[in-house]
């Protein structure tokens, strides 16, 4: 029996992943500001909702209304799904670290199971990591979060900021080691055309073949569109 895949909502990316992300994986989407990480997360959730799945969006940055507005700008009606109890948006407060950590540890696994969510998005894990004082605690927390979600059978997608001097490493250099999959979103400077182009690359994805090509994408009113077969 083949590995069950979940579609990302981006046809071109699913093509690069030979059908989608292996179900139950932990995937991190890394990129600098403006590369569409939040849109990617919402698009991934929206795809699941369109297929009749349930989803949970955990935000450490934006509040519920601005997340719903972001989705509406791309034509995704998440408000209805929220009202139908198909979607839950959880806002965690980074400035109240102890409460946030306690909530994640004690409530999340039970909540995922009870709610019946098969897709979870954490935006962003870089902010979550700021709640911890050292790398050991950050690494332990990330590993525990990943394992907690894995036990529920849900697919976990986390967004992460990148280092200023290395677009292929997350800000704290930890999440990519915990994740089964790493997708990089970045700007490429096209000197011949004197413009910046958005590019996507799958750095790793366990349990599936995948393209390693640096592929152009654009952010449109329908979300991220990955242009497989296009050249820069």
Give structural notes.
There is one protein chain. It contains eight helices and 13 strands. It has helices at 11-16, 37-50, 64-73, 78-83, 97-115, 125-129, 135-152, 175-178; strands at 5-6, 21-22, 26-31, 55-59, 87-91, 119-123, 155-160, 162-163, 166-170, 181-190, 195-205, 215-220, 223-226. The strands form three sheets. A nine-stranded mixed sheet has the order 5-4-6-7-3-10-11-12-13, sandwiched between helices. A hairpin with a 2-residue loop joins strand 12 (215-220) and strand 13. Helix 5 packs parallel to helix 7. The longest helix is centred in the middle third of the chain and has 19 residues, at 97-115. The mean pLDDT is 94.
Model regions low in confidence, pLDDT < 50 over at least 5 residues: none
**What is the tally of beta strands?**
13
Strand order of the largest sheet: 5-4-6-7-3-10-11-12-13
Please state the structural category: alpha/beta
**N-to-C terminal Cα separation, in Å?**
38 Å
Mean pLDDT: 94
Task: Tell me the β content.
Answer: 25-35%
- Please trace the helix and strand order, writing H or E for each element: EHEEHEHHEHEHHEEEHEEEE
Number of contiguous helices: 8
Amount of helix: 25-40%
Shape, per Cα inertia axes: globular
Q: Main sheet, how many strands, which sense, barrel?
A: 9 strands, mixed
Rg over alpha carbons: 17 Å
Keywords:
single chain, 232 residues, alpha/beta, 9-stranded mixed beta sheet, two-stranded antiparallel sheet, 8 helices, 13 strands, 35% helix
């Amino acid at each position: 029996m083949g590995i069950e895949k979940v579609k990302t909502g981006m046809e071109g990316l699913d093509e690069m992943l030979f059908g989608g992300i292996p179900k139950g994986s932990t995937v991190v989407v890394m990129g600098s500001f403006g590369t569409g990480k939040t849109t990617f997360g919402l698009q991934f959730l929206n795809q699941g909702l369109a297929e009749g799945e349930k989803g949970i969006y955990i935000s450490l940055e934006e509040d519920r209304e601005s997340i719903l507005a972001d989705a509406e700008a791309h034509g995704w009606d998440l408000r209805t799904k929220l009202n139908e109890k198909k979607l839950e948006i959880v806002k965690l407060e980074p400035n109240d670290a102890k409460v946030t950590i306690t909530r994640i540890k004690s409530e999340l696994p039970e909540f995922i199971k009870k709610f019946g969510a098969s897709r979870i998005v954490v935006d962003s894990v870089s902010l979550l990591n700021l709640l911890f004082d050292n790398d050991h605690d950050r690494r332990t927390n990330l590993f525990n979060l990943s394992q907690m979600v894995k036990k529920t059978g849900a697919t976990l997608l986390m967004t992460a900021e990148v280092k200023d001097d290395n677009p292929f490493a997350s800000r704290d250099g930890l999440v990519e080691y915990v994740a089964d999959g790493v997708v990089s979103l970045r700007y490429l400077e096209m000197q011949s055309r004197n413009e910046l182009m958005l590019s996507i690359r799958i750095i790793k994805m366990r349990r599936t073949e995948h393209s390693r090509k640096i592929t152009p994408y654009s952010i449109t009113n329908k979300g991220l569109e990955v242009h497989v077969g296009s050249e820069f």
